[in-house]
Design goal:
396 residues, alpha+beta, f41 fragment of flagellin, N-terminal domain, 3 domains, two-stranded antiparallel sheet, elongated
């Protein structure tokens, strides 16, 4: 018999320690509900489940992205619904004005409401926003509009007070000109010797190439030397040399011609509707201002103008209907996108749960077993500690 090394006690203590560790892990799993709490529990399972979690969270966010896209579409479509109602009322006024029972004085009164409705149509296009993003002013069209070159100047002669006419327009910013939208424009400068009148003329295809004055300003006694800054149609203009035009008015008008072209046409709104790279869809919302709808410059102050307005309004209402139909089609598509995104997210969640979640019943069985083993280990450790006491009987 030996007493320096109690092998039985050491064995019981080792087994009890292993049981305590296993018991702790079982309690951790039961308290967290997870089979894998750390990489050491199942390294491969952890890697697989983390990949699945990335996909699940990505798909859930993609579904919310699509829902936000629907909200944006509904905002735009709701505004266009009112724009179309305005177009219908304008058409009603055009029909009224075209009737021969009215005088031109009556038609002028009708035209007042007609003009205000067109302004409201432009206000809706300019002010309608979703989360701070303009949706009807062409921003969401995906089109990039740039002014081609520096334009050209035509008129009587090509010099004024010894200077080239092009210098008058040298400070006009092409980025500002691009705000006017797609089309061909003329800036007509006239002088009566004391005042300078500047007309911004639209000669674009939206109106069948029929020119009309978009905006006009008259500047009295232009300063000598400094450039004159003013605004036409929301665009900042800076012309150099108006004083020369005033004091040395040429024989005829000076016209600055320029063209804004679409240099890029792509999706105006891109929605990330997948969990991975390049899983997106896009749509565009065209510029819904009255000008782009072909209503620029039209009036109903005469019977002839009212007849022309009827044709233009039919085309404008058709354009609005087409845009609303495209928005509706995209909304229906996004609703299917949400359904197709939520379904795999649900199945991936189930798969991830099978890998990572603990089976509570099995783990409770395991914990019960470990509790019994712990108690047995404690009892055997106590018994093994009593064995060396038998040596004392030999010393008597």
């Amino acid at each position: 018999m030996i007493i320096n090394h109690n092998l039985n006690a050491m064995n019981a203590h080792r087994n009890m320690g292993s049981t305590n560790v296993a018991q702790g892990k079982a309690m951790e799993k039961l308290s967290s509900g997870l089979r894998i709490n750390r990489a050491s529990d199942d390294a491969a399972g952890l890697a697989i489940s983390e990949k699945m979690r990335s996909q699940i969270r990505g798909l859930n966010q993609a579904s919310r992205n699509a829902q936000d896209g629907i909200s944006m579409i509904q905002t735009a479509e709701g505004a266009l619904s009112e724009t179309q109602s305005i177009g219908q009322r304008m058409r009603e006024l055009a029909v009224q004005s075209a009737n021969g029972t009215y005088t031109d004085e009556d038609r002028v009164l009708i035209d007042q409401e007609f003009g205000q409705l067109r302004k409201e149509m432009d206000r809706i296009a300019t002010d309608t926003e979703f989360n701070g993003n303009k949706v009807l002013d062409g921003t969401a069209s995906g089109k990039t509009i740039e002014t081609q070159g520096n334009g050209s100047v035509v008129g009587a002669g090509n010099t004024i007070s010894g200077g080239n006419l092009n210098t008058i327009f040298q400070d006009v910013d092409p980025k500002e000109l691009a705000k006017l939208g797609e089309g061909e424009f003329n800036v007509k400068v006239t002088s009566d010797g004391a005042n300078v009148t500047i007309d911004l003329i639209d000669n674009s295809h939206f109106n069948g190439g029929k020119p009309y004055v978009m905006d006009s300003i008259t500047i009295g006694n232009p300063p000598v030397g400094p450039n004159e800054t003013f605004e036409l149609c929301g665009v900042e203009w800076e012309l150099n040399g108006l004083d020369k035009i005033t004091t040395n008015a040429p024989a005829g008008d000076i016209t600055f011609k320029f063209e804004n072209r679409v240099t890029k046409d792509e999706d105006g709104v891109t929605l990330q509707i997948g969990a991975n790279q390049n899983q997106h869809i896009g749509f565009s919302i065209e510029n819904m201002r009255s000008r782009e709808l072909g209503l620029g410059g039209i009036t109903v102050d005469t019977a002839a103008n009212a007849q022309e307005a009827l044709g233009r309004l039919d085309e404008a209402i058709s354009k609005i209907s087409q845009q609303r139909a495209e928005l509706g089609a995209n909304q229906n598509r996004l609703e299917h996108t949400i359904a197709s995104t939520d379904n795999p997210a649900e199945h991936l969640q189930a798969a991830e749960a099978r890998i990572r979640d603990v089976d509570m019943a099995i783990e409770m069985m395991n914990l019960t077993k470990l509790n019994v083993l712990q108690q047995a280990s404690q009892a055997m450790l106590a018994q093994s500690n009593q064995a060396p006491q038998q040596v004392l009987s030999l010393l008597k």
